[in-house]
Automatic annotation (TrEMBL):
Main function: Performs the first committed step in the biosynthesis of isoprene-containing compounds such as sterols and terpenoids.
Keyword annotations: ATP-binding, Lipid biosynthesis, Lipid metabolism, Lyase, Nucleotide-binding, Steroid biosynthesis, Steroid metabolism, Sterol biosynthesis, Sterol metabolism
Mvd1 C-terminal domain sequence ranges: 201-431
EC number: 4.1.1.33
Name of the protein: Diphosphomevalonate decarboxylase
Coiled-coil boundaries: none
Pfam annotation, one family: MDD_C
Organism (species): Olea europaea subsp. europaea
Any one biological process term the GO annotation gives: sterol biosynthetic process
Reactions this protein catalyses: (R)-5-diphosphomevalonate + ATP = isopentenyl diphosphate + ADP + phosphate + CO2
Endpoints of the signal sequence: none
Amino acid sequence: MAEKWVLMVTAQTPTNIAVIKYWGKRDENLILPINDSISVTLDPQHLCTTTSVAVSPAFTHDRMWLNGKEISLSGGRYQNCLRELRARASDVEDEEKGIKIAKKDWEKLHVHIASYNNFPTAAGLASSAAGFACLVFSLAKLMNVKEDHSKLSAIARQGSGSACRSLYGGFVKWIMGKEENGSDSIAVQLADEKHWGDLVIIIAVVSSRQKETSSTSGMRETVETSMLIEHRAKEVVPRRIIQMEEAIKDHDFPSFSRLACSDSNQFHAVCLDTSPPIFYMNDTSHRIISCIEKWNRFEGTPQVAYTFDAGPNAVLIAHNRNAAKLLLQRLLFYFPPQSDTDLSRYSLPSHVDFYCWKSVNFNSLKSIFPLCLLFSSYVIGDKSILEDAGVHNMKDIEALAAPPEVKDNTPAQKYKGDVSYFICTRPGKGPVLLNDETKELLNAETGLPN
Ligand code: DP6
């Protein structure tokens, strides 16, 4: 075997948002949950992780780079995933390159992993789900692991619980399982992304300076100290899971919305019931909830569902495009951008995703266009919703009328700058292999980051 070769695989994996939440483990090492959960996979065009993995006899140890920075792989979660994958690796042959790797060689060979998120990491959006799912999916392809997605989900689960749900597109259920070894704690797809294609998802990235408690330690503290969590896991979630599956199957938005909102609120209630209490939502999060609740009540039937993970960002799921348009108008009315933010003039061209911007030197760009703060672009992702809403510039926002549900009350208050930006997206597909060499994050000859 020539010692020079590098064999590489690149894949892209979506992130997901739970509508029935996972919170609490019964086994910390294997990452086994105390209840089932259900999520919606988000369109990877707007939020995803891209990972390149490479193997070469020239590599001296396993290495990983996240968003261009080398990180340690010594943590138990990485080690568990790597061990599980190596144990399932098979023979690999690349005739073109003259490479042959026997099953037993994988124990000795080392891998390089480079991972990149197409959304700003500072946004506080769950990146570990897409990250671990992508690591497991791409390494499984590289190592010719002949397991189906549900078996791979059980490996991704050991990296981060929510990662197991990112192995599929559409609507996904993580079955908690009963076995002590976790073999039946797997994710399954309930419906693909086309099943309920009308849904539109708008994420409000809420400005926050607060250092948040990580999900891992937060849920540990909840299990140790909350009395409510047991009632939630044993009595409430099992019923909600059945109802949510029905709602998804029947496209029953009112039920979907009521369940998702109640479950998000209960998750934050058990956080508050933790000692010391954990506050993930802030005043802006609460204002967004009030806005949606008021509007849904005014309409007599839910237009939008809200859900919040372990942070203040709101994930808003609109029934259809019309509801999304009305939602965006309301959000921009209550939460207008800081005046120096332009809506579209300086934003990323819609045909260029963040991926292409990873190598851009923002400081030099700022000096070319002094006003061009790329990430201050206020509505990103699927900008066509902005068109639907008839909002093209700051003047259009200033001209937005107060929503009818507040008209007769005292003048509606506005909260300028309390939302950093919005991401418009939709339910999306599961992991895919990328065959485009320009998307590779490792050099095909050296196996080092590009
Ligand atoms: C609030 O999957 O991040 O997003 O398993 O410890 O890595 P670990 O936790 P993580 O927890 C996610 C919690 C949540 C709800 C959910 O995604 O279901």
